[in-house]
Amino acid sequence: MTERKKRLDLFGKSKGLNGFLLTSPSNILSYSGYWYDFQTGASPFQLLPAVLFISADQGASLLLADNEESKSVSVHEGITIKLYSSYSYREPLMFRESFLSELTDGFETMKIKTGRIGIEGDHIPNVVIQKLSEVFPSIEWINVDQDIAVLRAIKDEDEIESIKLAANLADIGQEAVLKYAAPGMTELELFSKVRLEMETAAGARIPLMADLISGAATATGGGNPRTKKMEKNDFVLSDFTPCLNGYWGDSCNTIVLGQPSSGQQEIFESVKDALDIGVKALVPGNEAREVDRLMRGRLDMYEEFGHHGGHGVGTCYHEEPRIVPYNKMILEPGMVIALEPAVYKEKFGIRVEHLAVVRTGGPQILTKFNHRFSQ
Amino acid sequence: MTERKKRLDLFGKSKGLNGFLLTSPSNILSYSGYWYDFQTGASPFQLLPAVLFISADQGASLLLADNEESKSVSVHEGITIKLYSSYSYREPLMFRESFLSELTDGFETMKIKTGRIGIEGDHIPNVVIQKLSEVFPSIEWINVDQDIAVLRAIKDEDEIESIKLAANLADIGQEAVLKYAAPGMTELELFSKVRLEMETAAGARIPLMADLISGAATATGGGNPRTKKMEKNDFVLSDFTPCLNGYWGDSCNTIVLGQPSSGQQEIFESVKDALDIGVKALVPGNEAREVDRLMRGRLDMYEEFGHHGGHGVGTCYHEEPRIVPYNKMILEPGMVIALEPAVYKEKFGIRVEHLAVVRTGGPQILTKFNHRFSQ
Known about the structure:
The structure is a homodimer.
Chain A: H1 3-14, E1 19-22, H2 25-32, E2 50-55, E3 60-65, E4 79-84, H3 95-109, E5 115-119, H4 126-135, E6 139-143, H5 145-151, H6 157-180, H7 187-202, E7 208-214, E8 235-244, E9 247-248, E10 251-256, H8 262-280, H9 288-298, E11 310-312, E12 319-323, E13 336-339, E14 342-344, E15 349-351, E16 354-357, E17 364-365
Parallel strand pairs in A: 1-5, 3-4, 5-6
Antiparallel strand pairs in A: 1-2, 2-3, 7-8, 8-9, 8-10, 11-12, 11-13, 13-16, 14-15, 16-17
Helix pairs in contact in A: 6-7, 8-9
């Protein structure tokens, strides 16, 4: 059993829960190993692509839409897979009825008719709890979204390996920017080359959050690529957050398409130094907010950057521990954290970012890209 | 007021509803004009990006996450916009509390304390109805997902214009395949060129569903592009479903990278003929299933294709009317329908697709691409 599953079970016990009914892609992946792509939004042929039921004492079961199943499904040991009818063309669509009936059957089979079940109240569709409450009026549904978010902050080694692979894609993206960015090229043209290199390395299309902007727009900190042409001496800010098999990577760099002024170079070095200081502080026992404070402190001669200093990364691109001024969460081994200090001036912005693991022996940086300001 | 809003109001009246609380991107766009991108999944800083409340007699109000608001928000006349606090870094995240408090305040302001409110039970998170039920125990929540799906089958002219723009992107994609596909190139490389042309025309990144496969994989009907290299005499099947500002286009073509055999050419012509027959049948008064039957009939010397003959297109990529053997829905002017007959053999598949509007004077084809089998 994975360490994270043990922590979930322990949490369930402490709250007197008889099980969990999990529906978000992040939690389903974390606790079952199953991931589905979401790049094109919800399917009109499914109530949900998947739902994971974890019983406190009778194992776990994953209910999947049968039009998901054609992909090779690989899940953690001991998890039963069931299917419900989703897409059809010979018969009217009955995915709602099939989903709810398979789900209630599962509860019947496990003889769960009473007790407390943890759910993601922010995510689970109302119709699911409405139906289950009709059939099992004695079950109490407990919202555990925020508790699980905190549990997920510490990663197991298999998860760190998965994040490392995604971080490698982000590295490939940064190298591609350095290789291809040129005056006269549009931001979308550059993005196309970057994404092709990342997707070729992944062997498939991947969900990809990306800031890729040039010129004065870098002062705003981010944005999607546009048809704007890059010009000589433009800054190019590239923040890539690719998702590989459900785990995210994260990396940011800023370059200038020409010769930076000494003032600009100095800011770049300061931001890079702030990042180094932040990474060094990723040690067990430190408070999350201390890492944020150290990075902001190194940049206190500039106007303060108006966003988090960093964030956890895992099956969600932003998760605990948030590296922000208020967060007293204590860093622990296995936390995977992206740090992204920045300086934004009136006409340009500079941000650099690394992704690292908190380790007993000192932080392990997962992004191997070496930030540089010039091509 | 749009015709679709009038139909929604009329439906609400017929069901004795005092209003609607809509949460899915498709419905929010249809009835408010507001769209948010969903390419990278749910935001960890929002309960929902948006919720639309439509009162039976007091206008409509759109509640948005304030980190959505920086985009220029343009909505239908008469809709009030309110914001809730989502992303923050100086204070702990309170998006759940802020969302639920703004929502209940809105109900208080409108003096809605009782009655029947239509919701999308398949979509609305349980915590929202849980909270509203606590504060307003006399309100009855009615699931109207399927009813609205049927109402949305008929499009207004402004929607048809939006779909036409998305269909134009699909056309650009098909022309790009004919222009660039070549032996030695990977499917992902071709996809990169196709997507760049579509995104450059759109001026931005767009959600894009795409089958883009070559060789024997075309026999399966679809799939995402891979690192497989295309070879001489390979079939290339390209089905592009791009989303522009929330409205979808749809188009499919199949080419062969070389000289087709006369048998292959004959199948291509048959499938194209089946499509023409289907499009001609898109006239008011026909049953949806009749269009499906006619297309399958033209291809009855081949093994029957194992998917729908077509589907409605709008703010969702597959919607009513479904063009399938069981669907007795009567076609009406303003329905926008994609037809996609196909023949799948053991070693290759051929599918072509057009998107058209049902009009009193005869169907209007929105995809302008002229299907061709050779470059």
